[in-house]
Amino acid sequence: MHHPTPDVIRVLLIEDEETHYHVTRALLEGAERCRFSLEWARSYAEARAMLDAGPHDVYLVDYFLEDRTGLDLIRDIGRVSMSNPVIMLTGKGDRSVDMEAMKAGAADYLVKGSIDPQTLERSILYALESHAARKALLEAEARSRRTFEHLPIGLFRIGADGDLIEVNPALHEILGYPDETLLRNGYARDLFVSSAHATDVRKGLAANGHVSAFASELRKADGSVVAVSVSLWRCELGDGSYYLEGTLDRSAERPHPAAAGAPEPRLP
Questions:
Q1: Is it the case that residue 32 has pLDDT exceeding 90?
Q2: C-alpha triplet 51, 2, 137: angle, nearest 5°
Q3: Rounded CA gap, 215 and 212, in Å?
Q4: Same domain, 74 and 185
Q5: At residue 78, does pLDDT exceed 80?
Q6: Is the Cβ–Cβ distance between 161 and 247 less than 8 Å?
Q7: Which pLDDT band holds residue 16 (cuts at 50, 70, 90)?
Q8: How many angstroms separate the CA atoms of 137 and 124, rounded?
Q9: What does the DSSP assignment read for 89-105?
Q10: Is the domain of 140 the same as that of 23?
């Protein structure tokens, strides 16, 4: 997914040598696709003041500063704002510094003597695009979490091994607020249907990858019985493993009949 870049990309260079400021300005002026506005912070303290004053679109941070390192500043930038990618600059290539910068949150790592206008422009655009994609993903996850927490029907996730991953507040309410042990060893073990129906649901998942609106009955935490409608989906992961996602709602329907010869439904 392409994310639009600003008309003028605001760059803050954090560099204690004036010569490198002029070199960086010339590199940005030589860029072919974008226009840049460059500001310069000459020290760690000046950089912190400019960070507090307002965000830039991207930060170019020299590894060697007078009294601190660029890694210290990258960590500070991460604490101040999530909206700004950081590119680390250094005078020579060093794999350990590269890895340290990435762990601290840098989007890229450039060696000063190896930078031309195209390299710097490409690095900045990549950093902006990657950061925007990550921000969009975090926002989507936050929206999904809000839906999970506030949707008025029960939602649950179960691991491939049958271990309960999570349930939402609505499911707790429908089942009468059961304790963790009952949730894990009772309801989740039987895929949130009655014990007599669990085998049928597992067969449906194995054959089709999903089961829709399966009617069953469950015993609530207070001993009363609630009719429910349960849907489950098998969610495949990239490594070949999977987990189950499901919905559970109150239902006025009668449960599916048990398989021929099976006993009456045994409720958890």
A1: no
A2: 65
A3: 9
A4: no
A5: no
A6: no
A7: confident
A8: 20
A9: EESS--HHHHHHHHHHT
A10: yes
Q: Could you tell me if 60 and 52 are in contact, meaning their C-beta atoms sit under 8 angstroms apart?
A: no
Instruction: Output the pLDDT for position 36.
Output: 94
Together in a domain, 59 and 107: yes
CA distance 152 to 154: 7
Tell me the C-alpha to C-alpha distance, in Å, between residue 125 and each of 61, 103, 131.
Answer: 16, 20, 10
CATH number of the CATH domain containing 210:
3.30.450.20
CA distances to 100, 149, 154, 179, 226 from 173, in Å? 47, 12, 8, 12, 12
DSSP 16: S
C-alpha span between 261 and 268 (Å, rounded): 20
Rounded-to-integer distance, Cα 132 and Cα 146, Å? 21
The range of the structural domain enclosing residue 177 comes to 151-250
Query: Element (H or E) spanning 50, and its range?
Result: helix 44-53
This prediction's pTM: 0.59
How far is the C-alpha of 101 from the C-alpha of 87, rounded, in Å? 9
- What CATH number does residue 120 fall under? 3.40.50.2300
The reply to whether 119 and 213 lie within a common domain is no
What is the per-residue pLDDT for 124? 93
Number of domains in the chain: 2
Does position 9 have pLDDT exceeding 90, yes or no?
A: yes
Residue 99: count other Cβ atoms within 10 Å of its Cβ.
11
pLDDT value for 259 = 35
Could you tell me which of 95, 92, 124 has the C-alpha nearest to residue 108?
124
* 33 part of a folded domain: yes
Model confidence pLDDT, tens digit, residues 177-222: 999 899 988 999 999 999 999 999 999 999 999 999 999 999 999 9
Q: Within a domain: residue 220? A: yes
